[in-house]
Each structure stands twice: as C-alpha cells, then as structure tokens.
UniProtKB/TrEMBL annotation:
GO terms for cellular component: cytoplasm. GO terms for molecular function: ATP binding; hydrolase activity; phosphoribosylformylglycinamidine synthase activity. The keyword Nucleotide-binding applies. SMART domains: GATase_5. Keywords: ATP-binding, Cytoplasm, Glutamine amidotransferase, Hydrolase, Ligase, Nucleotide-binding, Purine biosynthesis. This is Phosphoribosylformylglycinamidine synthase subunit I. Signal peptide: none annotated. One of its GO terms (biological process) is 'de novo' IMP biosynthetic process. The keyword Transcription does not apply. Pfam families: GATase_5. It comes from the Bacteria.
Length: 275
C-alpha cells in the first residue's frame, strides 16, 4: 500500500491552502505539506517526493490578464535553483502516476497550463498535456457568484476522485467559471471521452442544467468539473475543501445534510493506496 504524500501549493494570491491541507488530512493522507511556489524553486520541496498535488483556490496574481494566466506562464518558464525546468518536473510527476486536484483558481490554472483536459490530438490515444485547449471565462451574470450548487457526478467518468459518488452539494465562489473552447468539436470530444466529471444540476430531477442560478456561470451543459483522459488530474470550480464538516452545510441547523466535499479527497487518497 502506497503512502499518500500530499503537497498543497500556495503563493501569489492563493487563499485556500489551509482548508485544502485540512481536507487532505481528514481524508487519510499520510503526509500533508503546504509549499509556497518559491519553495519549489529553491528545492525545499520537490515534486518527486509527493504523489498528490493540490492547486487551491484564490486569486493568483489578482487574476490580472485573466484568471491564473500569469501563474501558468510562471509554471511554464520557471527554473529551479539547480537549473532544471519546473515544467519538466511537473511532467515527470504526471508521467510517474501522480494525481492532481485543481480547485476554482487551481482549476483555472490547470486549464491555462494545459494539464486539463489534455484531449488526445491527431488520433493519438495518449493525453496531450501542456497544450491549452479550454479556458474559464466570465460568468454570464457579469458578476462574482457566491452560492451553494447541486452537482451531478458522471458515473462513466474515469476520474479517480469521484468513484462511488452520485450527487453533491458544494459552495462556489468565482467570477470566471464558464468553461469555454474555440470549437464545438472540443466540447464533443470532452463528452465522448467521458471527461466531463461534474455538472451543475437541478435538485428535483438531478439532471444537468444551464438555468441560472442553479448553473451559476452559464457553463455549457452545466459543466462544473473535468478530468484528463487518465482520470488522475481533476479540476472543478466548486470548493470541496470548504465543506469539510456537517456544520458547513448552510441548513445543518435544520437537520439537512449531504455528502461532505472531503469525499473527493478521500477518492484520491483511496486510489493512491490501492495501487
């Protein structure tokens, strides 16, 4: 059984690192560390020492130029103090079977960086990492949305984080959460590959919806979270780490409850312990 060593990355506007670290610990991770981006550069923390990466929410670089765009360039061009490419180190992490969870701003970063959705290109079956194919655009409402949303889980998805889950209720808080792509073909490929993991849903019929405010940003077909072809890299706009106890539920005093958001972290931990 593999030890689950989790690294939560912070810095430059990230603000949910402590909640993510707590959620990982509660989910059963054996080791959990929080590292500032600069500590990756100096070598204090090395990606090769971990098998679970968490990219938390926040406002990387103030969302200047677009959410997480500046941060994606930092990852692409950063050099470690020993001269190695940080992007190469991240590629090695993915290639050796590590898992990654990007939440809200972290999801925006993974799409801008090209780790999601990594749709295979030119009829190849291998994921096309580091080639941006999608992005997250401004909410249709034209404003920042802060509310709880119902989410339908795609049971056919290969996502390792959502195994045995069906329906979730999680908080969202973002201004740029609508999944966008240059062509309809990209959306079709995403659906055909079952890389759509979560969709905003109507609680009455548990079906995906584009109706506001059930769908808070206007994302096509209610897409709220996607994964790479392997299911090991997962990004979502809702904040699972913010629902880590029953008392976080907005109606818990009235006896209402639902699956904790930490269940997604449990899924990742269980996957690593099973390989």
């Amino acid at each position: 059984m593999a030890l689950v060593k989790t690294l939560v990355i912070t810095g430059y506007g990230t603000n949910c690192e402590n909640e993510c670290a707590y959620a990982a610990k509660k989910a059963g991770a054996d080791e959990v560390s929080i590292a500032h981006f600069s500590e990756l550069i100096t070598g204090k923390f090395k990606l090769e020492d971990f098998n679970f990466l968490v990219f938390p929410g926040g406002f990387l670089d103030g969302d200047d130029l677009g959410s997480a765009l500046a941060a994606a360039q930092r990852w692409r061009h950063a050099r470690l103090d020993n001269g190695a490419s940080l992007l190469d180190e991240l590629n090695k992490f993915v290639s050796k079977g590590g898992i990654a969870l990007g939440i809200c701003n972290g999801f925006q970063l993974l799409t801008k960086l090209g780790l999601l959705p990594a749709l295979p290109e030119n009829d190849k079956k291998t994921p096309s990492y580091f080639t941006p194919q999608f992005s997250l655009g401004h909410n249709n409402s034209g404003r920042y949305e802060d509310r709880w949303c119902y989410l339908k889980v795609n049971a056919k998805s290969p996502c390792v984080f959502t195994k045995n889950l069906d329906f979730l209720y999680l908080p969202i808080r973002h201004g740029e959460g609508k999944l966008v792509a240059d062509t309809p073909e990209l959306f079709n490929a995403l659906k055909e590959n079952n890389q759509v993991v979560l969709q905003y849903a109507n609680p009455e019929n548990k079906m995906p919806t584009e109706e506001y405010p059930l769908n808070p940003n206007g994302s096509p077909e209610g897409i709220a979270g996607i994964c790479d072809p392997t299911g090991r890299i997962f990004g979502l706009m809702p904040h699972p780490e913010a629902f880590n106890d029953k008392t976080n539920h907005p109606a818990w005093t009235r006896g209402e409850s639902s699956e904790l958001g930490t269940a997604l972290f449990v899924g990742g931990v269980n996957y690593l312990k099973s390989i």
